[in-house]
Amino acid sequence: MADLLIATNPDPESRLPYLLRLPLGAGLVFRTSGTWPRTKALYCHPVELAEWPAEPEIVERTPVRSVARRGAAIDLVLARGRENRSQIVFTTARGRDMVFWQTPRVRKQARPNVTTPTARAAGIADLQIVVDTREQYAYRFATQQVTTSRRALPCGDYGLIVGDRLIAAVERKSLTDLVSSLTGGKLSFAVGELAALPRAALVVEDRYSQIFKLDRVRPAVVADGLAELQVRWPSVPIVFAETRPLAEEWTYRYLAAAQAWAETELAIGRRVDTVAETVGAPDAPLPSTAEVRRWARAAGLAVPDRGRLAPPIWDAWRQANQIAAEATGANGAATPSE
């Protein structure tokens, strides 16, 4: 019966203190951050077999009952009563190949057994969400009744435009991005800009409890920093949505609620513009040239395949969108008579 071996990593420059060797084929070796994925998946960096030391300092040696590769994962069963099942998963994250070591318990925590609803939020048939052009791996809202467009937003990653005002925005953060931007000071400025909007929020794609499991920064520093942001700008809630799909769902429903709020404000006196001006909401950003070019072709206007658009094309786009905005105000929320 072969053994699973965990040894200390002799490389003092490495941030991963352990070496993991699996008895599969000639042997697979990974650098890793722990000896067992008890509370979270452990990142593993694959290395050549030659990196395994000639005289390793063994930390743990456990007999292996079975080890088999199945697709993009290696299933591992150890010959012990507790903590005996785990999995080495080969995946891709943010365009990079990555490997994680996880247990069934960790996997269940990372993938909550929930199904997000497909009912449209706030009764809106087609919510128009603007995605910031700098947002990478943006939400697609594929299961919802959403139409997205890309523009350079002054703040936030996902925005809602009513008339000619950006009235709501959501800033999206992974836990890693949240920690780096908080400790680097960028998050404070970002939340301050969001606070200038009538409605804004920050959504985090993880649990709040994961802050206290950080090992490269003091958890108290992150927790205190988030608390200070919330006290300083109470109008910008910080929401931990557990997973990326749940964060996407929350973003969709938050912006839909903001749309319904805007229509209510319009219905009782067109106060959105007044509110936006008092809190300093910026003007809605102009669309990209590519977006206007697509609109012009759909409208039957002749436009070149490349290069700048003529001023009459931009004038036609502005006129059409002004008419659409006025129609929305007239049909969706009637203005009360004087």
Can you walk through the features of this model?
With 338 residues, the protein is α+β, with helices and mostly antiparallel strands. The chain contains eight helices and 14 strands. It has helices at 104-110, 175-184, 186-194, 219-232, 244-267, 272-279, 289-298, 311-332; strands spanning 3-8, 18-22, 28-32, 42-47, 58-70, 73-78, 85-93, 96-102, 127-132, 146-151, 158-162, 165-173, 199-204, 238-240. The strands form two sheets. The chain has an eight-stranded antiparallel beta barrel. It has a six-stranded mixed β-sheet with strand order 10-9-11-12-13-14. The longest helix has 24 residues, at 244-267. The protein is elongated. It starts with a strand and ends in a 6-residue tail after the last helix.
Short synopsis of the structure:
The chain has 338 residues and is of the alpha+beta class. It contains 8 helices and 14 strands.
Descriptive key words:
27% strand; single chain; 6-stranded mixed beta sheet; 338 residues; alpha+beta
The share of residues in extended strands comes to 25-35%
Unreliable segments (pLDDT under 50, ≥5 consecutive)? 275-280, 328-338
SSE arrangement, N to C: EEEEEEEEHEEEEHHEHEHHHH
Radius of gyration: 26 Å
Overall structural class, as computed from helix and strand content, comes to: alpha+beta
- Helix amount, in percent? 25-40%
Shape: elongated
Question: What's the pLDDT, averaged over the residues?
Answer: 83
Tell me the number of helical segments per DSSP (H or I, 4 or more residues long): 8
Which strand order do you get reading across the main beta sheet? 1-2-3-4-8-7-6-5
Quote the distance from N terminus to C terminus: 88 Å
Overall number of strands: 14
Largest sheet: 8 strands, antiparallel, barrel
